[in-house]
Design brief:
This is Dihydroflavonol 4-reductase. Pfam families: Epimerase (PF01370). It comes from Chryseobacterium vrystaatense. The chain is of the alpha/beta class. The protein has one domain: NAD(P)-binding Rossmann-like Domain (Rossmann fold, 3-Layer(aba) Sandwich). 35% of the residues lie in helices and 18% in strands. Helix 1 packs across helix 4 and helix 2 runs parallel beside helix 3. The longest helix has 21 residues.
């Protein structure tokens, strides 16, 4: 039985990954802030340990085959690069040093697709494409890229595999995090949408990709965990179809997003936290599209339709609120 050490265990991807690891007969040690935050079932092969990313975990890395690092600072409203660097870079350096000292075979780092270039001139973004604006101006994406570069420069015995998931949707999004986008359209009579788009992937499939990378991921390689490229209008249309909702959809003018970005930039200069910024508003106006060819061919992932991801997310949200509101069978 293979043994893995996991961070970010209570997040959307972390929960889905651990559930699958246990199904595949892995032994899992998971770092959590509080054991009570774990949403999955208890298991004899799951050990929860309390701590933070700067804890000394060396005793838990003995005979561990792989470390899967998913924990990150993902907020979009922090004002300084240092606010991201502490968790997204410094903590990873600390964790990798302990993994290498314990001679862990593999270190899997879950990054983001936004460290890579997106669709350009009709060609989908791939693992070979360099980061582009607006993500070059995103403190979050920059901190992830800095960490990727650090890990890929290491020449120790521990092998490094980088995973770059796109926008994940699915169950166990307790905060919610990325699932907030569903609430933009769910049960709304009027939906305002930006003209850009994203690549969406089922969190279950991203979790499957993480696990397959333990066995098949190549040292020093990056793998996009990506599926369907959809405009926001198409994505919100799926929510309406799945839930039986009928909403009137209105595009947000680009000029409006530009103004919001400028307002956000001014608020940030006044040290006021906000997710508004020119770079974030630009991200809503581009087609942030990617290819999953490499992960499909080399890792053998079979991606599920995004409709299934939306259905699973909505079911989870309804279950959390003790509701059953979906109007069509799914």
């Amino acid at each position: 039985m293979k043994k893995v050490f996991v961070t970010g265990a209570t997040g959307l991807l972390g929960t889905n990954t651990i559930i699958k690891l246990l199904q595949y007969d892995y032994s899992v040690i998971a770092l959590v802030r509080k054991k009570s935050s774990w949403m999955g079932e208890e298991s004899e092969t799951l050990k929860l340990i309390e701590g933070d990313l700067f804890s000394d975990i060396s005793e838990h890395l003995q005979e561990v085959d792989a470390v899967i690092h998913m924990a990150a600072e993902t907020s979009q409203d922090l004002l300084r690069y240092e606010d991201y660097k502490k968790i997204n870079y410094d903590a990873v350096v600390h964790l990798f040093a302990q993994a290498a000292a314990a001679e862990v075979e593999r270190f899997l780092f879950v990054s983001t697709a936004n460290t890579l270039g997106y669709e350009n001139s009709g060609v989908l973004g791939s693992e070979n494409d360099s980061q582009l604006y607006p993500f070059t101006h995103s403190f979050y994406a920059k901190s992830k890229l800095e960490t990727e570069n650090y890990l890929l420069q290491q020449n120790r015995g521990t092998k490094v595999v980088i995973l770059n998931p796109t926008f994940m949707i699915g169950a166990y999004d307790r905060k919610p995090s990325s699932g907030k986008i569903i609430f933009w359209a769910w049960r709304k009579k009027i939906v305002f949408y930006p003209i850009g788009g994203k690549n969406f992937v089922h969190a279950e499939d991203a979790a499957e990709g993480v696990i397959k990378a333990i066995e098949k991921g190549k040292h020093g390689e990056k793998y996009l965990l990506a599926n369907e490229n959809l405009t926001y209008k198409e994505f919100f249309g799926k929510i309406n179809t799945i839930t039986g909702n009928q909403s009137f959809m209105i595009p947000i003018p680009n000029s409006g997003l530009v103004v919001l970005g400028i307002i956000g930039d001014c608020l940030r200069k006044l040290n006021i936290k906000t997710s508004l910024s020119s770079s974030n508003m630009k991200a809503l106006r581009i087609n942030n599209f990617y290819s999953n060819r490499k992960s499909s061919e080399e890792l053998g992932i079979r991606y599920q339709p995004v409709d299934k991801a939306v259905e699973d997310a909505i079911r989870f949200f309804e279950r959390e609120n003790n509701e059953v509101k979906i109007t069509r069978p799914i």
